[in-house]
Amino acid sequence: QDEPELPFWTAESPALEPFIWRCHTQKCADFQAGHCPLHKPMQCFNYHFEGQRRRPPIGPDGRLRYWDTPCEWLARPAQCRNGDACRFAHSKDEVSYHPGKYKTRACNGKDCRRAICCFAHSEDELRVAAARLYSRTAAAAT
To answer: What is the CA radius of gyration of the chain?
Structure first.
């Protein structure tokens, strides 16, 4: 069976888009300089360690760059022969903040990352169409 084509992004809530597009895609300058006040618990918009890094999920053409499905090399992404061009998620954050997953389920309050929490905290935040639009599972079923 052929791999489904990665979908194009459709504009959504301006309040949520920065998190989907950019959360954990840049190194934290404060942490690199020695101290980030948002480090513990981790609530920083930028990443502190390479294992937290996300590739931007949406390309300049508006098409998603990778699926919400973990790469077989998730535990060791540096070993993936496709590198940053891989069509699958290379970290837990690439799955959690992916357009197909971000804010599609309610937060259970356990280990909530507050401002950068990837779970919904109200009905208004819940992205009910996201999985249908951006998830590999939904795309493969069509």
So the answer is: 15
How many residues are there in the chain?
142
pLDDT digits (tens, 9 = 90+) for 99-138: 999 999 999 988 888 888 999 999 999 999 999 999 998 7
Which residues does 80 contact at the CB level (< 8 Å), separation at least 6?
A: 71, 72, 73, 86, 90
Measured distance CA(100)–CA(4) in Å, rounded: 14
Give the distance between the most distant pair of CA atoms in the chain: 49
23 and 54 Cβ atoms separated by less than 8 Å: yes
Could you give the angle at the alpha carbon of 99 between the alpha carbons of 98 and 104, nearest 5°?
A: 95
In single-letter form, the type of residue at position 89 comes to A
pTM confidence score: 0.88
Q: Which residues contact 118 (CB under 8 A, 6 or more apart)?
A: 19, 96, 97, 101, 102, 103
Check if the beta carbon of residue 6 is closer than 8 Å to that of residue 63. yes
Q: What's the DSSP call for residue 41?
A: T
- What's the CA gap between 99 and 9, in Å, rounded? 8
Q: Give the torsion sign (CA, 115, 127, 123, 93).
A: negative
